[in-house]
TrEMBL record:
Similarity comment text for this entry: Belongs to the short-chain dehydrogenases/reductases (SDR) family.
Entry-linked PANTHER family: OXIDOREDUCTASE SADH-RELATED, RETINOL DEHYDROGENASE-RELATED
Keyword Coiled coil: no
The protein, known as: SDR family oxidoreductase
Listed GO MF terms: oxidoreductase activity
Keyword line: Oxidoreductase
Amino acid sequence: MQAIFITGGASGIGRAVAGYFAARGWRVGLADVDATGLKATAATLPADRTATYLLDVRDQDAWESALAAFAALSGGRLDVMFNNAGIGQGGAFGELDRAAIDRVIDINFRGVAYGARAAYPYLKATPGSCLLNTASASAIYGSAGLALYSATKFAVRGLTEALDGEWAADGIKVRDLMPGFVDTAILDTGISGTNRTARDAVVDAGLEFTPVETVAQAAWDAVHGEGLHAVIGKTARRLSFAARWMPGRLRKMMRRGMI
């Protein structure tokens, strides 16, 4: 039985991907700091093929323990490590305090790096395995008002590209997801210095929300396909096109706060 371990499994993209893979017969390991959300996600999945783990992705020792426990259930298999846990952070970069900066960097990038490193021996031992990371459309071009979030997602993109080359000899595929604005709780994050949320900003800009079901399908396709970066949703595709073919115009739009 194929096995996937998912961080950020208590809600949103993690929950949707868990359901998608479980429906196709996979064993699922769910990890998150949200015990209530983990229980809710697990209740939607087959009990005999689902395990949950309270995991703070910033804790390297906790990573080692969780993956060892999951491997004991899966017979040592880890077909997919889905590094999905992340948080949002909007607002003016110059107004962020040190605690906010450290938290976003530690969860959005350090947690991904720890997960990749902890999963490596299990992925290497599983033929056809894949490391799948959640990046963002903000990793296509740095987003004004989302500077720190963009920076961490660019780091995830860089790690994905580097490990795609480094781990090819071990038979491990490495992929990432670059969705636009996905309709999940992360959009309810407040924008620093305002009373608004990221969701308000997306609505005001007239941009679309990408359903989590679309991202789950893209995750499946990424694991089973050959593409390195999965650009998901209209906003992400438009941004990718502009970054490649109209970088000057995109830069001006970003300076005017039009994205």
